[in-house]
Every structure is written in structure tokens, then in C-alpha cells.
Amino acid sequence: MSTTILNQEAVVAPNHPLRISVIHRNV
Questions:
Q1: pLDDT for 13-26, tens place per residue?
Q2: Number of domains in the chain
Q3: Rounded mean pLDDT of 1-21?
Q4: Domain that holds residue 20
Q5: DSSP-assigned letters across all residues of 1-27
Q6: Is 18 in contact with 9 (CB distance < 8 Å)?
Q7: pLDDT at 10
Q8: How far is C-alpha 14 from the chain's CA centre?
Q9: How many whole angstroms separate alpha carbon 8 and alpha carbon 1?
Q10: The pLDDT of residue 5 is above 60
Q11: For residue 22, what pLDDT is reported?
């Protein structure tokens, strides 16, 4: 599920700070 959300956000906003925070939290 998380992977799908990340992929969708990556397509919408690759440089979105929120997406970066989510990735850091996931890792």
C-alpha cells in the first residue's frame, strides 16, 4: 500500500517535501 502511495505522489510531485518525509520515515 505504501509503495503505491509513494509512486502516486512521486508522479504528482517528485520534489514534494511531504513525499521526502514519508520516504525517510519508511526507510
A1: 556 666 666 665 66
A2: 1
A3: 60
A4: 1-27
A5: -HHHHHHHHHHH-TT-HHHHHHHHHH-
A6: yes
A7: 56
A8: 8
A9: 11
A10: no
A11: 64
